[in-house]
Amino acid sequence: MSEKKVALISGANKGIGLETGRQLGKLGYTILLGSRDALKGEVAARQLRGDGVDARVVKLDVVRQADIDAVAKLIASEFGKLDVLVNNAGAMIEKSWTKNSTSETKVADLRATFETNLFAVLALTQALLPLLKKSEAARIVNVSSILGSVSLQATKGSPTYDTKLFAYNSSKAALNVFTIHLAHELLGTKIKVNSAHPGWVHTDMGGSAAPMNVVDGAKTEVQLATLPEDGPTGGFFHLGKELAW
Q1: CATH numeric code, 6-242
Q2: Under a CB-based contact definition with an 8 Å cutoff, are residues 126 and 137 in contact?
Q3: Beta strands 241-242 and 236-238: pairing type?
């Protein structure tokens, strides 16, 4: 069994996922960068190794059960346990942040969004939970969004009230419920489960108008991945501040 702490990050060949790997790696973690494209993932891993991080790529398309099973088998054989799982991979199909087109949302788009943002998270977490239970103090971080806060979506005048991306927002709300339920199931264990809102970050998904850079965007994921024994579980956080569900 590996003496070093091991962290798997999905969707980690760029953006917030890659930066989360860099920051955790500099704290001494072995970083497994999950990437749909192994070649792009290897470029990212080399970049982290150049920064002194113990990083390697694992081919992981989160909607492919075969990839999930292969990653679980690799971690079991090479490390014997997993200390951190960051469910970072996500999808946003809607293109307009200003138009509410809920009544026109295609069922196929809802299914595709939930496939990545909820069902894949469930499948990956279930496959890796036996390895997380072998850690002395495992942490699961589900990367959500403030757009998944139902209370803020329903409150006129809130910062997200007018951003009605039905498929994306509802998938993140469902992810938050998964966080609550899994954390409750694991009460009494050394595993902590929390949802993270990275912020509106300048990435491919966030767009060029986003005010935050990826360094700051990764901080919430890193904070929740490194919580102390007396840290929270079953919560929704941004930069240490608890958010409304």
Answers
A1: 3.40.50.720
A2: no
A3: antiparallel
Q: What is the pTM of this model?
A: 0.95
Indicate the domain borders of the chain. 6-242
- What separation in angstroms does the CA of 92 have from each of 16, 43, 97? 15, 24, 11
Looking at the annotation, which residues are catalytic?
Answer: 168
Condensed to tens digits (0 to 9), the pLDDT of residues 106-142 reads 999 999 999 999 999 999 999 999 999 999 999 999 9
